[in-house]
Each structure stands twice: as C-alpha cells, then as structure tokens.
Automatic annotation (TrEMBL):
E.C. designation(s): 6.3.4.19
Name of this protein: tRNA(Ile)-lysidine synthase
Family of this protein: Belongs to the tRNA(Ile)-lysidine synthase family.
GO CC terms in record: cytoplasm
Domain Lysidine-tRNA(Ile) synthetase C-terminal positions: 357-428
Entry-linked CDD domains: TilS_N
GO molecular function: ATP binding; tRNA(Ile)-lysidine synthase activity
Catalytically driven reaction(s): cytidine(34) in tRNA(Ile2) + L-lysine + ATP = lysidine(34) in tRNA(Ile2) + AMP + diphosphate + H(+)
Domain of life: Bacteria
Binding-site list for ATP: S30, G31, G32, L33, D34, S35
Domain notes: The N-terminal region contains the highly conserved SGGXDS motif, predicted to be a P-loop motif involved in ATP binding.
GN (gene name): tilS
Length: 435
C-alpha cells in the first residue's frame, strides 16, 4: 500500500514538474473519487492550488455535493471557488452539454499562464478512446486525452493518466478519504456508463486495455502532429493571409491539393482559429459549394462558431456574425476609441482632430467624394472599389460632422474644408477574430 501511495505521489509530482505553471493552479473538484484523491495528493505535496466546483443542478444531490467539497477543502486548508451553471442541451446529449457548461467556467477563470488540473485517469482514457472510436472519430479524436493541452489563456493538465481507478481507490481508502458517488454513473443510458459497465470489463479480461490504448493513443498523437505539420505547410502554400476580419486562402491553391489534403488543411485551419473539427460531411459540403459557385456568388457554411465564405477567388474563415440591431447613431469625440455595435471599435488616427461627430451605418443611397476625386459616387460603388468584403459593408462606420460625411472608417476621408493637411481616416477594427 505504501508503494502505491508513493507511486501516486511521485507520478503527480513528475507530471507537475513536466508542465511548469507560470500562473495560478486550479483543480477541477467534483467531489468524486478521482478529484478527491488529486486534491489530497496536491495538498500532501505542498503544491498551492485553488479548487473550483461547478454545480450543474442536474441532481437533487447537487447542493450536498457542493457542501461536501467545501468540507474537503476546509480540511485540506485550500481555497474553493464555486459556480452555478444552467445546462442547456445543444444536440450532443446531456453529458456533453454539462461538460460544455463546465469548461466555459474553467476558461473564464483561467488567467494568463494558469493551469487547470483535471483528475482524468488511465481508465478514463480507455473509455474516451472507445467512445470516440464508436463515433467515427479521426486521427486527432482517437489520440484521446493528452497530458497537457491549451485551455483558454492557460493549460489543462492531467497528472493522473498513468494510473487506473483501482489505484486511486486504494489510495483513498488508505488515506481515510470520503467521496461522493454520482448516481448518474450507474445509468447505462449514458454511453460512457454503458461502455464502463457492459463492454470494457469483458475486454479487460483478455487484454491489458490501459497499456494498449495508451500506446495506440501515443502513436495517434504522433500521426496527428504530422498531419498538423502538413496542414501548416499547405496553409502557407495556398496563400493564407489576415483580413479585416478573419483570414482567407486562395481557392485555386486549395483546388491544387489532393482531396485528403484539402480536408486536412481545413481541419487544421479551424483548429488554429479555435474551432472544433467538423464531421467530414460538413467539410465535403463546404468544398462542394466552393467548386459549384462562380466568383460572383458568396456561398457560406456554418461550422460551429465559425463560418466559411467564398468571395471572389478566396475562401474566408470568419466568426459567425450576429445580426446587428437596427442602425443607430452614436456620438463621438474623435479623441478616444468608440465601441461599435457588433463588437467593433473605431480608433482615432494619430492626426484625427477632436470634435463633435456622429457615427452611423449604411442605410442606402449615401454618396461620398473621397479625397482626390472630382465628383461624388454612391457609397455602395466606393465600397466595392475599395474591396470591402460584402459581409462588412453594413457594419463599416460612417463619420459625420453635422450632415457632412467626413470619412469611412478604415478606408478613406472625404473631400471637404479641412484645416491644413487632411488626416488619415480613423482605424476601424471590425471585431473579434481580427488579426
């Protein structure tokens, strides 16, 4: 028993040393066996941490579990942060919805360089591998859970992956620990429980699953890293560039790749922009629409919180833009940044004069005369000439003094009675996901 306790302590200490923390350490504490053991191990090692408990309110015992966590951290003399969440199913089932709500909390809490410690162990790894296999996951999905991955502004670290549940239970009993049992863990309607109780025991009788799955997952992580490397090179080859909002690549360059490399490139691009890897059918539909559309059409397809759009001969990857409220008028001093509807910002150029301005948005029929032009033109035509992407044309800020249009944010200033040299147009930052 002492050997097992020592092995766990050494394993956790080695994992923490392998992933140095530049900020604050947090522990995801449910009050179950796994997180209770990890909390005790961290405290016994003298590692400072803050526990965080997320109350999903899905069980009649949820408040009792929160109280249990409070008693545990009081005994260990460590701080606890609790958060209540509302779980809303999004099509992936209740388990997945609860996980999503939980990780939203974790990402909000993590500061720059912080770590979230999760108590996933080797048997969880086996279950995750088989769940993803049965859902038809690709290489990245079957690589299962890494020991460390980015999460928000910090990292998610799993120091117990080298140990199984039995080892944790022996440690808990030897240390006199109490833990809660979630009654939903006995409900075989949930896929993970069905695997855990009805499928994996028989497989374990014949094969050392934890060792074999761990080896397979490591091989798959190497393959996933190679695919990411290929995707990075292909993104450069197809002319990846930053746009006013999001990024774009050459459609001709994408067409020059093999079908498998096209899909790999799109998955890698989505991953780099923080998106989830969509099913192959979604990627195939995006490619089908791209090939079918001429340069004058603008097909788009949603991929989670991101959108793929074609404009001209390029494919854009953008955030899913919320519908703007009816156009409104804003007052602006011209000396400070101005928050715009939809998440954008208007920033005065270095030589923009302070004053009393109105900022509004296109409603149709506006005309403008850019500096150097002999006559005015419709704003619609000018935005086309300045190559402003169609999905941004109703969002570009128009700066007025009285009824006179002075400038179009980020594009041009208009002919007028400027005192001295005309200034540069105010900078327009369309919103999140700009580079």
């Amino acid at each position: 028993m002492h050997d097992q306790t020592g092995a766990l302590r050494k394993g956790v200490a080695a994992a923490l040393a392998g992933y140095p923390c530049r900020g604050r350490r947090w522990l995801a504490l449910s009050g179950g066996l796994d997180s209770t053991v990890l909390a005790h191990l961290l405290a016994s090692l003298g590692e400072p941490f803050t526990a965080v408990h997320v109350n999903h309110a899905l069980s009649p015992n949820a408040d009792a579990w929160q109280a249990h966590c409070r008693r545990l951290v009081d005994a260990l003399q460590v701080p606890l942060v609790t958060r209540n969440v509302v779980v809303t199913e999004r099509g992936g089932g209740l388990e997945e919805a609860a996980r999503h709500a939980r990780y939203v909390v974790f990402e909000e809490l993590l500061g720059e360089g912080d770590q979230l410690l999760a108590a996933h162990h080797g048997d969880d790894q086996v279950e995750t591998f088989f769940l993803r296999l049965l859902r038809g996951a690709g290489v990245q999905g079957l690589a299962a859970m890494p020991g460390c991955r980015p999460l928000g502004r910090g990292q998610l670290v799993r120091p117990l992956l080298g140990f199984g549940r039995n080892a944790l239970e022996r440690y808990a009993r030897a240390s006199g620990l109490d833990w809660i049992e979630d009654e939903s863990n006995r409900d075989s309607r949930f896929d993970r429980n069905y695997l855990r109780r009805g499928v994996l025991p028989g497989l374990r009788e014949r094969w050392p699953l934890r060792e074999r799955v761990g080896r397979a997952a490591e091989n798959l992580r190497e393959a996933a890293a190679l695919l990411a490397e290929v995707g990075d090179g292909d993104l450069v080859a197809v002319g990846l560039r930053s746009e006013r909002l999001g990024q774009s690549i050459s459609i001709a360059g994408l067409q020059s790749l093999s079908p498998a490399r096209r899909k790999n490139l799109l998955r890698r691009w989505l991953s780099l922009r923080g998106g989830e890897s969509p099913p192959a059918t979604v990627l195939e539909e995006l490619l089908r629409q791209l090939w079918a559309a001429g340069g004058d059409r603008q097909p788009e397809i949603a991929m989670g919180e991101l959108v793929g759009r074609r404009w001209g001969e390029r494919l854009y990857l953008l955030p899913a833009l919320a519908t703007l409220d009816p156009p409104q008028e804003l007052l602006w001093s011209g000396s400070e940044s101005l928050a715009l509807p939809g998440g954008g910002t208007l920033v005065p150029s270095s030589d923009w004069p302070a004053g009393s301005y109105r900022v509004s948005f296109r409603q149709g029929g506006e005309r403008a005369r850019p500096l150097g032009r002999s006559h005015s033109q419709t704003l619609k035509r000018l935005l086309q000439e300045w190559q402003l992407e169609p999905w941004l044309r109703d969002r570009v800020p128009l700066i007025f003094e009285g009824t006179r249009l002075l400038a179009v944010g980020g594009l041009f200033v208009c002919h007028g009675d400027w005192k001295g040299r005309p200034p540069a147009p105010p900078e327009w930052r369309p919103g999140a996901f700009s580079d």
